[in-house]
Write a structure and sequence with these properties.
The chain is mainly α. Helix content is 66%, strand content 1%.
């Protein structure tokens, strides 16, 4: 008989847990495109069934093996194992979907498929596809569904994981929910995630209905909703939202991009206290909306004054959409903005880097950390005048202790170093500075399109296979906010 060590046995338990989660989410992701494929008869349903079946067989095999060997451990999983499973899902699930893309023949390389799948689940919206509309409708639906499920990751993963392993669910909560300055709500984890899921679903249904009223057909309404509420930016049209040339469509999508970029837990708090005003009284939300408003005014003024548009109406219209798209890190485009004034383009990249509200589907550094940075600078300046004084500051009425501050500085340092490093790698490989650094910002912030050769009318297909893997890894780092992935190495 094979002499299995304790480590081997625990590895089997980790593998069983990981495969059970992969099977659940794979089935969830592929079931809707499968049904739609059968309905429209595009012949792709077999690829979806084969993938679900393959992961299911893998899980069943490991499950039966653990039963046969009587592998059990009441202390499983420990912190390291829980975090390992939670992080591994983000690397392995895109590989499963990448196989679907490649097996259908519409994406030729597994690395290209992996890049597209990672971009979907991390709600980045960057693409290697040169002609999106050539893909069958069920495959485009799958592509947009990865956005929706990726944006929902916090709620849906928690609901599924807490029934399998509460510790894994809490590991995900730890880095997918708002990272800091939150009330302690772990004891109500299931109740909260169900509420958040309900809100997420309600926003999706409401946006779909409103888009239908603008004249979009049900297929496009659903696909754009998936990418909007998740602030993902995938579109089934080559011209993104600009394909409709409709201000009403742009306005509806803009509103729901902002709703998706607001802390999902605030919806729970508003529900608990029976007041929607609770959302907009939040310090982070108020500053976020103020930044968006000021940016729209500045952008509109510059575009109109410099003759990019002949009317103030057009300047305001396109400024609203692109500023909201950038600040929510969605990445939709309603026009080709690549030739806009450099100041406006720089502003858009800066907004993406700052990002959305913490705990939302949006990416970026997050507004709460901007508040922390600003208040920290003020404190340090005060210390110059009164070095012996003790200063403390609050965010959301909670005092920031030294441990929280240290985590903030570690994150900010790693985040900036990561996007600079990836940008320098691309520059070293021969790409121009604008393309290189905007690509890096677009991937780590989950913005999607950048500037230069990766602008709104271009894509990421020109990068080498290794460069695509690096950028895909950067997307995952940005989505998981770096520290959990790197911290996994140091857990014992």
């Amino acid at each position: 008989m094979i002499n299995l060590t304790k480590l081997n046995l625990r590895f089997l338990l980790v593998l069983k847990l990981l495969l059970s989660i992969l099977f659940f989410i794979t089935s969830l992701t592929l079931s809707i495109p499968l049904i739609y494929s059968i309905f429209i008869k595009d012949g792709l349903f077999l690829y979806y069934i084969e993938t679900i079946g393959f992961i299911g067989i893998l899980y069943l095999s490991v499950f039966l093996l653990t039963k046969f060997l009587k592998v059990e451990d009441k202390n499983f999983p420990n912190n390291r194992e829980a975090l390992l499973v939670a992080v591994s899902v983000w690397f392995l699930l895109p590989l499963v979907i990448a196989n679907v893309y490649v097996s259908t023949g519409y994406i030729k390389s597994i690395i290209d498929g992996y890049f597209e799948a990672v971009s979907g689940f991390t709600t980045t919206g960057a693409s290697i596809l040169t002609d999106i509309e050539v893909l069958p409708k069920s495959l485009l639906l799958l592509r947009n569904l990865t956005n929706w499920i990726g944006g929902l990751g916090f709620a849906i993963f928690t609901i599924s994981f807490t029934s399998i392993s509460p510790l894994v669910g809490k590991s995900l909560i730890k880095f997918e929910a708002p990272k800091v300055i939150e009330e302690s709500i772990e004891i109500k984890i299931k109740k909260i995630t169900i509420i958040i899921f309900t809100v997420y679903l309600a926003l999706s249904i409401l946006e779909t209905i409103l888009l239908l009223f603008t004249g979009l057909d049900i297929y496009n309404a659903i696909n754009y909703t998936f990418a909007t509420v998740a602030t993902g930016g995938f579109a089934p049209k080559n011209e993104s939202v600009g394909a409709f040339n409709s201000f009403s469509v742009e306005l509806i999508i803009s509103v729901f991009m902002i709703l998706g970029a607001i802390n999902l837990q605030l919806y729970y708090i508003a529900y608990r206290e029976k007041s929607l005003l609770k959302i907009f009284k939040d310090e982070e939300v108020k500053i976020y909306l103020l930044i968006i408003g000021i940016s729209i005014v500045i952008s509109s003024f510059i575009l109109f004054k410099n003759g990019y548009y002949s009317s103030i109406y057009e300047s305001i219209r396109y400024s609203i959409f692109q500023i909201v798209s950038a600040s929510t890190t969605t990445g939709f485009s309603s026009t080709d903005y690549s030739n806009w004034h450099p100041f406006v383009l720089s502003l858009m990249m800066l907004l993406a880097l700052i990002g959305a509200v913490s705990g939302s589907t949006g990416g970026g550094i997050k507004i709460v950390r901007l508040i922390f940075l600003f208040k920290s600078v003020i404190i340090e300046l005060k210390k110059l005048a009164h070095p012996k004084a003790i200063y403390r500051f609050k965010i959301r009425d909670k005092v920031i202790d030294s441990e929280t501050a240290n985590i903030m500085w570690v994150f900010l340092s790693l985040y900036i170093l990561t996007f600079i490093f990836v940008g320098l790698v691309l520059v070293f490989d021969g790409y121009d500075i604008i393309t290189s650094f905007s690509s890096s910002v677009a991937c780590i912030t989950s913005l999607g399109p950048g500037l230069g050769d990766v602008g709104p009318t271009s894509n990421f297909s020109q990068f080498s296979q290794l460069e695509k893997l690096i950028l895909a890894f950067e997307m995952i780092l940005g989505r998981l906010e770096i520290i959990p992935v790197i911290g996994l190495t140091f857990l014992r």
